[in-house]
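Morning!

This is the sequence you dropped in the shared folder:
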Amino acid sequence: MAASNVTVDDSSSLIVYDPPDAWSRFSGNDAQAYMNSTYHGTSDSGAIAKFTFNGTGVWFYGAKKPDYGSLILVVDDDVAAYVNATASDTELGQFLVGASDLKMGEHVVSVMNGGTGAIDLDAIVYETVNQAQPYVFIYA
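The structure's back. Tokens below.
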């Protein structure tokens, strides 16, 4: 079976930000170095970005910065990873966390602010099989 990757921009309505008022959307000059010049960020502990997809893997991309903190990846209601988005210098477009080798099917994944500083989300990439061609979902 042929696998393909699908990129979902942070501004897509396919991503649910919860609670909505804990997340800020940045665009234009503030986000020029991000994909499609947009990103979402939060410094609220426990704030979640949730995404549902059909596939076998998923990867979250965003920034790593000196004042950024931890994030938690939850896949199908199980904690899959706890990682740190802190870096000595600002690094944009970075792989933050992901899960692969999932059984083909519907999965619900969330990235949660771990409470040690801000985090941001630029894009989600997921892998699926038997899709005629990869699609890019971009919603402004």
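Headline: The mean pLDDT is 93.

More detail when I'm at my desk.
O.
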